[in-house]
Structures are given as structure tokens and as C-alpha cells.
Design brief:
alpha/beta; Rossmann fold; six-stranded antiparallel beta sheet; six-stranded mixed beta sheet; 21 helices
């Protein structure tokens, strides 16, 4: 339920705090006093976009805070925003129109707020009358009670059908374009595959080219080094062997001489390793002069691929995999189209079955809805009202089905049922909406209902019946009701009154909760336009009967 609402610097409200109660909360006030602004501020708290014109003082912040208790929200919202006993929505709009929204202290977006708000409050106003007059919206009232699994299956199947239908149409219409793309991709694939990229070897190409480019210099340096080390008549290896021979004869003569011999022996081993390493650097005897040219050509080809599909060789290979995958999806041969056509026909048969199941379910739902609505309308002084359902048939299955329901109504005996916009008056629409809201409230988890002038077009006995219905409904839900009728206002558990005052050069609206004596005086004023002995007596009678 909506526990409290704080409004600062919003239209006619400078700074007000309203603390609502359980049950039936009545809001009254003269025309233009600010009742619609109060509803606007609640809508603002629930995610409606802010209009800069509503900022009372443009150089100051606008601040709206709504505190909810005993909310029924999904577990993910409970966990994300730490919802325990209360849920607090706070909106701040600075002088530049910049908007900040918080839920229990967590910053959120406007769209996130709208998702949360759908579980908190259901607002009924004049706009709902227009929705009810539009036959396109009638399915929404029916579908609230349709088996959700049937709706889900139908929606899923319809989406799959449309996606497949779109894919097939695109394949046929864009066949030449697809073929061109296939040729392009295949050409790119051939270009990459032609090189037979080997990451291990091709990543070393540059080093190999650098080596082969200096082959003569390397060959001369290695040959000269080997001559000095081992191959020439007088070489380091031979001289070192003589050193070892001389030292070997005296190595046991003392520790320092033995250490010198050991060092010489180590140098001999290292020298042998060096000679072996130089000998194995390159097989100069089998050197092919064309290898360098071939490697340079390959390097140029690989660099070209990397420039087009890289920048790295790994990227080129990944691009190749992507091409292969895309080519698989771009098959447009006749077999593919035939298969898609067959799949589409099978899916259409499945959709037809689900469409018929949805139609039958809607029909069964309406039987119960008709009985419940007519029962409530009788309570609301529409004793002869009968609700009917007409199905508009379509040649093709739409996203709502091929048979779309529309309400028809007759309010008097002997008349043929007709569309609501042709037969229902404002007062009758108000009562039909109240009947529907009463029924829906039994099935949804929203605890707060707001009715903005639900008593439009009614008076007398009918107004009393509407008040009684609102009172009964408020025993299960929190109701906030804006009314001009004293007989409806008298049913309130809590009564708020809005009135305008002048503050400096600006008009300000204040809202206050009435005590019993104030409530009596406001009802008397609503009855006679002013407080008189007679109107006070009538007000007391209303409170005695309905309060």
C-alpha cells in the first residue's frame, strides 16, 4: 500500500506530506484545486516523464517521494533493492531538468522504475474510459484471465512463425544479393586457404628471411671462425689440447695447478660445443638460393592477408572460421528453400491449433467474466445491462490471434447489443470500468488502486451504490478515490481535502486530512455549496448511513 507521499516544488504544491491509510482514502476539492496535480505527482513517482513546466520554482529542485508498505514484488526486485518492510521511491529534478531516481537508496533508470511500478499501483482515470471505448483493447481485459501457458505457447509459436516467414521471404527476395555475397566470401576463403597458413612456421618467416639475406656474410664468418677454432693447421682447439697435456702431467702437484687444469678442461668442453653449434647452424652444402625469394614472396602474400583480414595471422585464421560459418548460413539452394517452406507449413498448422485453443479459452473466460460483470453492474443500478462478446475474424492469424474479441453492451431490455462507444454514457462507462477493476483486483497482487473521478456521470441512488462498491473493494485493497459526490465521499475511512490559497504572488494548494468535524463541514459544502443547518444535517445523515 502507498503509505505516504511527499511533494516539494511541483506545480501548485510547494511542500506537502500526505500519509494515506488502509481502506478507502477519499480526496475532495473544488475544480482546479489541485486534485489532478496530486494524481500527476503519484504518476511521477511511478515513472511518468517530468515536464519542466510543472516545476513551481524553476531555480529549485523538485522532489517527490513515495513510501510503500506490504508490497508484492518479484524476488529479484526484493533482492536487488533490499526490499524488506518498505519500498521508497524518490525522484529529484534539478533546475536544469536533470532527473535522479532512487529506490531504497539505489540509483535506477526511468525504465527500471516503470518495471517496479507495475507491481505497486493501478491508476484508473478518464484515459481508461477511452481505452474501454476502443475495441482493440478489449482483448487485454479478456486475456488477464486466459490460461497464461496457452498465451505463452501461442506467442512463442507466432514469433517463430513470423521469424521463419521473414527469413524465407528474405532468402527469396535477396537471392542474387546472397549469391554475390557467397561468391565474395568464397573468394576470400580461397585466398586464405591458398596460402595454407602454418602459425608455427609462418610466425618465424621474418627471422628466416633476415638469416638468408645475410647468408654469404654468415657463411664466411662461420667458416673463418671454424678455421680459427678447429680446422686450420694451427687452431685454438689444438693449442688448447697441448695446454691440457702439459697441465695433466703436473695437475697433482698442488691445488692451484689442479684448479687451473680443471678450468682448461672446462674451456675445452665449451670449445667443442661451440664448434658443434657453428657446424650445425646451416647446411651450406644444401643451400637453395631460391628459398629466400620464395620466403620473401610468401611474406608479401601473408602481409597482404593481414592487412585485409588481420592485423595478425591469428585474426586471419579467425576471419576464415567466420567466413566458413557465414557461408553455411547463406545456403540458398532450392533444397534449402523447399525445406523452409515445409517447416513454415508445419509451423502454420501448429499455430492454427494454438489459435483455436486461444479462441476457445477466451470464450470460456468471457462466460465467467460476463456473469461477474453483470452481477456487479446490477449492484451499480444497471439492472438490465447485458455484456456480449463479438469476435472479429481475420483471414490471417495476427499476433493477437485470428479471432479478436470485442465487447458489446445493451443497457435496456429489447435493444440489440452494440459497441460500447455507440451505446454507453459516461456514467455507464464508469460503472463498467469499476466492475472490471473489481474483478481484476481479485486476481492481481497490486495492493493500491487509484480512481480519478470514477463517479463521472452518476448521481443519487447510483452514486450510493458506487460508494458501497468502493467501500467493499477497499476491504481487500487500499483505495485512493477522487470524487465530487458527497455520498461517495461519506464512505471514506480517511478523508483528505485540497484547497488553494494565495502565497505572495503565487497560488499554492494545501492538502489536509480531515477530522470528523471538518469532514462533516466539507460534506455539507459539497451538498449545498456552503455550510448551512440543512446541509450539515444531510452530511450527518450521510456519515451515519455510510461512514
Amino acid at each position: 500500500m502507498l503509505r505516504s507521499l511527499r511533494i516539494i516544488n511541483f506545480s501548485v504544491f510547494e511542500d506537502v506530506l500526505i500519509e494515506f491509510s488502509k481502506g478507502l482514502n477519499i480526496i475532495t476539492g473544488e475544480t482546479g484545486a489541485g486534485k489532478s496535480v496530486l494524481i500527476d505527482s503519484i504518476k511521477m513517482a511511478l515513472g511518468e516523464r517530468f515536464s519542466k513546466e510543472k516545476q513551481r520554482k524553476p531555480d529549485e529542485k523538485t522532489y517527490i517521494e513515495a513510501v510503500f508498505e506490504e508490497v508484492n514484488v518479484p524476488d529479484e526486485i526484493v533482492e536487488r533493492y533490499n526490499v524488506e518492510d518498505i519500498l521508497v521511491i524518490r525522484r529529484e529534478i534539478d533546475s536544469n531538468g536533470k532527473n535522479k531516481i532512487f529506490v531504497n537508496g539505489y540509483a535506477i533508470t526511468l525504465n527500471e522504475l516503470k518495471i517496479i511500478s507495475q507491481y505497486l499501483v493501478d491508476i484508473h482515470g478518464q484515459h481508461d474510459h477511452q481505452l474501454l471505448l476502443n475495441p482493440e483493447n478489449h482483448k487485454n481485459y479478456i486475456d488477464k484471465f486466459v490460461d497464461k501457458s496457452i498465451l505463452q505457447k501461442f506467442n512463442d509459436c507466432y514469433e517463430r512463425y513470423q521469424n521463419l516467414k521473414s527469413k524465407l521471404r528474405q532468402l527469396i527476395e535477396n537471392r542474387s544479393e546472397i549469391e554475390f555475397k557467397r561468391e565474395l566470401l568464397q573468394s576470400q576463403l580461397n585466398e586464405i586457404e591458398e596460402l595454407q597458413i602454418d602459425l608455427d612456421n609462418d610466425s618465424k618467416l621474418e627471422d628466416r628471411i633476415k638469416f638468408l639475406s645475410n647468408i654469404e656474410k654468415i657463411k664466411n664468418a662461420i667458416n673463418n671462425s671454424l678455421q680459427l677454432l678447429s680446422y686450420s693447421e694451427i687452431n685454438i682447439e689444438g693449442l688448447l689440447n697441448e695446454v691440457l697435456s702439459n697441465l695433466s702431467s703436473i695437475k697433482d702437484s698442488g691445488e692451484s695447478i689442479f684448479n687451473a687444469y680443471t678450468r682448461a678442461e672446462e674451456i675445452s668442453y665449451l670449445l667443442n660445443d661451440l664448434v658443434s653449434q657453428l657446424e650445425s647452424v646451416f647446411d651450406f652444402e644444401n643451400y637453395d638460393p631460391e628459398e629466400l625469394n620464395n620466403l620473401i614472396d610468401r611474406k608479401i602474400a601473408i602481409d597482404k592477408l593481414c592487412k585485409k583480414y588481420g592485423p595478425t595471422l591469428e585474426d586471419v585464421l579467425q576471419y576464415k572460421e567466420n567466413i566458413v560459418s557465414e557461408l553455411d548460413l547463406l545456403s540458398v539452394d532450392d533444397n534449402t528453400i523447399d525445406k523452409l517452406n515445409n517447416d513454415l507449413n508445419n509451423l502454420l498448422e501448429e499455430l492454427k491449433l494454438l489459435d483455436n485453443e486461444l479462441y476457445l479459452n477466451r470464450l470460456n473466460v468471457f462466460k465467467k467474466l460476463k456473469k461477474d460483470v453483470e452481477s456487479i453492474l446490477k449492484e451499480l443500478e444497471l439492472k438490465d445491462a447485458e455484456l456480449f462478446l463479438n469476435f472479429q475474424n481475420y483471414n490471417e492469424i495476427t499476433k493477437y490471434g485470428s479471432k479478436i474479441p470485442e465487447f458489446l453492451l445493451t443497457t435496456n431490455k429489447g435493444f440489440e447489443p452494440a459497441p460500447l462507444h455507440k451505446i454507453a454514457s459516461g456514467g455507464e462507462l464508469s460503472r463498467i470500468m469499476l466492475a472490471l477493476k473489481s474483478i481484476f483486483s481479485e486476481y492481481d497482487s497490486i495492493n493500491t488502486l487509484i480512481f480519478d473521478e470514477v463517479d463521472t456521470g452518476i448521481s443519487g441512488k447510483t452514486a450510493k451504490k458506487v460508494g458501497e462498491k468502493l467501500k467493499r473493494l477497499s476491504q481487500k485493497k487500499q483505495l485512493i478515490v477522487i470524487t465530487h459526490l458527497p455520498v461517495v465521499a461519506a464512505f471514506g475511512d480517511t478523508h483528505f481535502h485540497i484547497e488553494k490559497t494565495s502565497k505572495g504572488d503565487k497560488t499554492e494548494a494545501i492538502i489536509r486530512q480531515l477530522d470528523d468535524n471538518e469532514k462533516k463541514e466539507i460534506l455539507a459544502t459539497m451538498i449545498a455549496g456552503r455550510v448551512t443547518e440543512h446541509s450539515l444535517k444531510q452530511a450527518l445523515e450521510l456519515l451515519a448511513e455510510n461512514g
